[in-house]
Amino acid sequence: MKEILLVEDSELDAQLVFRALKRHRLANPVRHIRDGLEAMNYLRQTEKVAAIGPGLPGVLLLDLKLPGMSGYEILESLRQRPPRAQMLRVVLSQIGDVHMIKRAYGLGADSYLVKPLREDDLLDLIAAFPGYWAFSPRHVTAAPTSSLRQVSTSR
């Protein structure tokens, strides 16, 4: 089961994602990093140990506005490194400008969700990209939805 790497500097937005994943019984381990440089260092380390350990995360949930290094810079770096090509790259951003969204796709984003996030859009994302997610068999009671809005999906 591959890890989900959540790169998000807003604690509130990160908690919304954690709750939505839990409600929908995703069992993938989630690592939360709040800084772009720290995230890039983590990805470099996991790439180095991929041969002996669990390797790179299967899913990257990436904010664009981050301290240290922007999400765009992270996408650019990932685009230049073929071993990371199998990682699902999903942008989570408040930036809804069509030019900025196209830029993210041009840098290798597979999907782009505009915040505030709606939970239904997270479900659509999961359905659009099967194979990246592991589900827990336990029953989870539905809770009120949060706010995840999906702009579009590629791949």
Descriptors:
35% helix, 17% strand, globular, Rossmann fold, 6-stranded mixed beta sheet, 155 residues, disordered C terminus, alpha/beta
Give the topology.
Blueprint: E1 4-7, H1 11-23, E2 30-33, H2 36-48, E3 59-62, H3 71-79, E4 88-93, H4 98-106, E5 111-114, H5 119-128, E6 149-153
Parallel strand pairs: 1-2, 1-3, 3-4, 4-5
Antiparallel strand pairs: 5-6
Number of strands: 6
Biggest sheet, open or closed, and with what strands and sense? 6 strands, mixed
Intertermini distance: 21 Å
Number of helical elements? 5
**Helix share bin:** 25-40%
For the record, what CATH class applies?
Alpha Beta
CATH architecture name: 3-Layer(aba) Sandwich
Mean pLDDT across every amino acid position: 85
Overall 3D shape:
globular
Description:
The radius of gyration is 15 Å and the shape is globular. A six-stranded mixed beta sheet has the order 2-1-3-4-5-6, sandwiched between helices. The chain has one domain (4-153): Rossmann fold. The chain has helices at residues 11-23, 36-48, 71-79, 98-106, 119-128, and strands at 4-7, 30-33, 59-62, 88-93, 111-114, 149-153. The relative contact order is 0.20. The model is unreliable at 139-155 (pLDDT under 50). The protein has 155 residues and is of the alpha/beta class.
